[in-house]
Amino acid sequence: MKNRETLDNVMYIPFSKKITMEVTNPSKLDGLKTNLDNRPLEVPLYQREYSWELEQVSDLFHDIDNSSDQSPLFLGSFLFFINENNITEIIDGQQRLTTIFLIIYCIRERVKEWYEGLQDKDPISTARMVKAVSKTEEIIYKRSTKASDISKSNDLYLTTGRRDRELFKLILQGIDYTKEKDLRRKSHKLLLNAYVFLNTKTKDFVAKRSIGELIAYLDKITDCLYISISTNKKEDQRMLFKTLNSRGIELSESDLIKNEVCIKVKESDSTIQGIENAISLWDQMRVTIEDEKANVDLFLFHYINHLEDAIEIRKYLEKHNTSETIDESTFLPIIPEKMVFSAYEYKINQVEDILTFLEDLKEKAETYSEFYRPAISSKKYTTYLEGLRAMNLTKCYPLLLRAKNKLNEKNFERLAKGIESISLRHSILNKEPKDLEQLYYQDLLKGLKSDNEIDNMIKKIKDHSSMTDEDKFKSNFITAAPRFSKMILKRIINSMGDEGIDFATTNVWFEHIMPQTVAGEWEILQSSNKETYEEYLNRLGNLTYIKKEKNIGASNRDFKIKKEKYYSKSIITITKNLVDYEKWGYTEIDTRQKYLYELAKEIWKL
Q1: What are phi and psi of 511, to 5 degrees?
Q2: Measured distance CA(463)–CA(330) in Å, rounded
Q3: CA separation for the pair 297, 294 (Å, rounded)
Q4: pLDDT over 90 for what percent of the chain?
Q5: How far is CA 444 from CA 67, 433, 455, 520, 521, in A?
Q6: Contact yes or no for 266/272 (Cβ under 8 A)
Q7: What would the mean pLDDT of 338-365 be, rounded to a whole number?
Q8: In contact, 544 and 593? CB cutoff 8 Å
Q9: DSSP label at residue 141
Q10: If you write DSSP's letter for every residue of 172-212 in order, what string do you get?
Q11: Which among 565, 554, 551, 556 has a CA at the least distance from the CA of 506?
C-alpha cells in the first residue's frame, strides 16, 4: 500500500527527551476506541481535506484482502493530540482512517442487504449477520459505555476535516448527499470516488465470492495492526507536526504554515467563530490558487518575498544561524525556499491581527492567479503576463505582486512590459538566472514603494546587459529554437494587425513548414544529413501558424504544393509571405528567421 509507513520509519521519529507522550505497542484496530479511552476522533482545522486518489484507496482495500490471521496488515502509526475538550485530534493518519471507515460502512450496507433479502432467516445466519452489523456500527458510530443506556446514535466517531465534514457525515448516515453543495470540489470528488469504488468492490465481493468472505474481510480490518502515538501537551503537538516531514510523510509547506496560523488564532481568538474565519480565509486562498492549477507552496514562497519587511525577516533568521556579518546584497531570493517555513513562523507571530494578514494573503492569491493564468482582457498588461507564463518564468512574481499593489495600471503595464522584454532577451541570450534575480530582488523590488519609482525602474531594466547587448541577441535569435516559439509567433502575428485569428480556439494550427514526419522531397533532404534536419526542424524560421482545416491537407506534402494550395490563401501575413520562396530548405529557414528577428526586436524593446 502506498503512503503507508513501515515499522522502520515509525522508529525513526526524532523525538527529543523533552517530549512527553504515550506510545503503544502494535495494537489491533479493533481496540482503537479502547486505546483512546473511547474519545471521539476529529481531524483538526489545520489539516488538509481528503486527498487520496483511487490508486491509494484500491491499494488499501487489496492490502487488507491479502492479509491473514498469521500476517495481519500493519497500517503504520497514528499520531494523536488529546485537546482540552477531551477530543482526540488526528495529527497524522486521517486519510487511512477516513478510507477504513468508508470500507467498514460499505460492508455494513452489504451485510444488511444480504440479510434482508433472505427468505429463511435461520438462527445461525441471524446471529452472524447481527454480530457483523453490530461490529461495524461499534467502530463507526458513537456508543454509550453505560450499561443502562440501550439507545443507539448515528453520530460518527470520526469527524473529518471541515471542508468534507458534512459530505462524509451524510454518506455514513445513509442520507442523500446529492444535494450537498460544492460536489465539484476536488476533495468532494475524491471522497465520492472512494465511496463509489468501495461500494462497488463490496458488492462484487458478495456476488463473486460470498457474504461469509465479506464478513471475514471485516475481521481482517479489525485485526490490522497500528501504533498509536499520543500527547496532550500543546508544545508536543506542534513538535509532532513539524517532525512529520522528516518521517517521509507527504506534508507540504502550506500544511505546516497553516498549522502555525491555527496556533496563532487559538492564542489570540480561541472562539469557534474566530478559528472558522481564519480557516475560511486560508481555504479561499488555497482554492483560488489551485483552481488555476498553480502551486500553493510556490505562491507562499513568492508572497513572503514580496513583503516590504522580507529583508528584515531574512536578517532576523540569519542572526539565528550565523555570527558573521550579514550582507543583504547576497539575498537572492530575499527568503530562499529552505527558509520559507521559518519566515512564516516568525511573520505570523509578529502580526497584530492574524485575520488581516490572512485577508491580504487571500487578496494576493487572486492577483497571483491572474499572473499564472492571465484572462482575456482589454488590459494590455495581460499580454505581457501571458508572455511570462509561456516562458514559464516566475522569479519575477514577487516583484509583480508588490507592483500590482503599489503602482497604478498604466505604470504596472510599463513594468510588466519591461519584465517580459528583459526576460525574453535573457532567455534567448542563455544568461545565468541569478543575473535576473539580482535585478528583480535587489535593484527593483527593494525600492518599490510607489509610482514615483517607475521611471527609475524602467531605466534600470533598459540599462541591464540583457537589453543592451543587441548584437549577441540577434546572433542568438536567428539560430534559436526556443520552447516558447508559439508565443513569439503569436505576438508577431498580432503585431502585424492580422484579423480573424483567434488563438484561444482551435481554428489555427501550429505548423512545421519542413515537416516532422518526412515524405517526398523532405525524405530526400533528411537523408543527406539527419542531424542537420533535426537541428533546423524546430527553429523559429521553420515555424508558422495556419488555419486548422488547411493544415490537415498540407501535412508533409512537398513545399510547392503546400505553398500553392495552402500558404497562398492564408490570412496570416507571415504564412502568406511564404509564397515568396521558390523552395524550402536550410538557407530559406535562416533567411526567414532573420526576417522574424527584425519584427521581434521591435516588439520586445523598451
Answers
A1: -120, 130
A2: 21
A3: 9
A4: 54
A5: 61, 16, 11, 54, 53
A6: no
A7: 93
A8: no
A9: B
A10: HTT---TT-TTTTSHHHHHHHHHHHHHHHHHHHHHHHT-HH
A11: 551
d(CA 76, CA 67): 15
Q: What is the spatial distance between Cα 580 and Cα 521, in angstroms, rounded to a whole number?
A: 19
Angle (CA) 441-443-446 rounded to 5° is 60
Helical ranges in 307-353 per DSSP H: 310-319, 340-350
530 near 538, Cβ under 8 Å? Answer: no
Residue among 297, 326, 79, 54 at smallest CA distance from 198: 54
Is the C-alpha dihedral spanning 166, 168, 173, 177 positive or negative?
positive
Model pLDDT for residues 20-78, shown as the tens digit of each residue: 556 666 789 988 888 888 889 999 877 778 989 999 999 999 999 999 988 899 998 88
Cα dihedral 279, 280, 281, 286 sign: positive
- Judge residue 91's burial from the number of C-beta atoms within 10 Å of its C-beta, 0-12 exposed, 13-18 middle, 19 or more buried: buried
Torsion sign over Cα 106, 111, 112, 118: positive
Q: What are the cell numbers at 334? A: 530575499
Q: How far apart are CA 276 and CA 256, in angstroms?
A: 18
| Residue 233 and residue 80 in contact, taking contact as beta carbons nearer than 8 Å | no
For residue 407, what pLDDT is reported?
A: 96
The closest alpha carbon to 222, from 101, 333, 337, belongs to 101
Q: What is the pLDDT of residue 394?
A: 92
Cell reading at 90: 488526528
And the C-alpha cell for 437? 534575480
Assigned C-alpha cell, 73: 496488515
Contacts of 102 (CB under 8 A, 6+ apart): 171, 172, 194, 195, 198
For 399, the 3-state DSSP assignment is: helix
Q: Are strands 225-231 and 27-28 parallel, antiparallel or unpaired?
A: antiparallel
**Global model pTM greater than 0.90:** no
What φ, ψ does residue 252 adopt, rounded to 5°?
Answer: -90, 170
Alpha-carbon span 23 to 43, nearest angstrom: 20
Q: Beta-strand (E) ranges in 408-517? A: 508-512
Cβ 60 vs Cβ 96: under 8 Å: yes
CA torsion through residues 167, 172, 173, 175, sign: positive
Cβ burial of 278 (10 Å; 0-12, 13-18, 19+) is: buried
